[in-house]
Design goal:
This protein is α/β, with parallel strands linked by helices and 283 residues long. The chain has nine helices and nine strands. Helix 1 crosses helix 7, helix 3 runs parallel beside helix 4 and helix 4 runs parallel beside helix 5.
């Protein structure tokens, strides 16, 4: 028989977080859903489900993260799956982004994820079981014009999760990083996407074109969030989950294109790459 799990989901009020929360509840599992404000609204929206506990959490606040984890344990007794989903996009040329804009993006997408992970892992280590799932992006697999800063936060999430998977494996805990492609959510809306105030005309044909494309592409992305949510259900219930999971044909294609280019460059520069060791190092 299926053993009920307890999921801890950040950024649950909309987008991926909301769709996954709904899917988890429909599967019969319990959810601790975190939101930045008005938890009663999400509770009512999901029909006061008894398997749902909504609590306040700004992931950039480490004390709040610890309190939310404590409340989760108090309410349901355990946390089986941590889904670090909270974050936001930043559309900008690398040079255009201000110091504050860059730091704010890292605060939410990287440091916030680490705050919540540190808050939850002690409970998982105590039980010697659990699964940490971190949401990255296709932009964390391969860079895009106009998404350099945002993508770099997701590159960080990819690397952190790889290390977590190695460190947690002996403790019976899994770690997976999920890289969705372009899905039809509110990600390109002004509520989720920040555009820099500084715009440099020299980047009009590159980043400017991306800005125009992002406006036109909003709500026309190929990915179906409900199907993505079902993929997360399968991932959360997998006996041996993967470390990496790209979602969407576009995400997979982008990764394959990058690795093909990378392999070609290695072939072209092989002699240089392999010619930098000391002469006394065995071939």
């Amino acid at each position: 028989m299926k053993k009920d799990k307890v999921w801890f989901i950040t950024g649950a009020s909309r987008g991926f977080g909301l769709e996954i929360t709904k899917a988890v509840l429909e599967s019969g599992d319990k959810v601790v859903a975190t939101v930045r404000s008005k938890p009663e609204q999400l509770t009512a929206q999901l029909n006061n489900n008894t398997n749902l506990f909504v609590t306040l959490l700004d992931v950039s606040n480490e004390d709040q993260a610890k309190e939310a984890a404590r409340q989760a344990i108090e309410k349901f007794g355990k946390i089986d799956v941590l889904l670090n989903n909270a974050g936001f996009g930043l559309l900008s040329a690398v040079e255009e982004a201000s110091d504050k804009e860059v730091k704010d993006n890292y605060e939410a997408n990287v440091f916030g994820m680490l705050n919540v992970t540190r808050a939850v892992l002690p409970y998982m280590r105590k039980e010697r079981s659990g699964h940490v799932i971190n949401v990255s992006s296709v932009g964390g697999l391969s860079a895009y014009i106009g998404w350099g800063i945002y993508g770099s936060t997701k590159f960080a999430v990819e690397g952190i999760t790889e290390a977590l998977a190695l460190e947690l494996a002996p403790l019976g805990i899994y770690a997976t990083v999920v890289a969705p492609g372009f899905f039809r959510t509110e990600f390109l809306d002004s509520t989720s996407l920040t555009r820099t105030g500084n715009v440099i005309d020299d980047y009009d044909s590159t980043v400017g074109e991306m800005r125009r494309f992002a406006t036109q592409a909003n709500k026309k992305q190929p990915g179906d969030p409900k199907k993505l949510a079902q993929a997360f259900i399968k991932l959360g219930n997998a006996e041996k989950p993967p470390v990496h999971l790209p979602l969407g044909k576009d995400s997979l294609s982008r990764y394959q294109e990058k690795t093909a280019r990378f392999a070609k460059e290695i072939e072209e520069w092989y002699d240089v790459i392999t010619g930098t060791d000391h002469d006394d190092v065995m071939a």
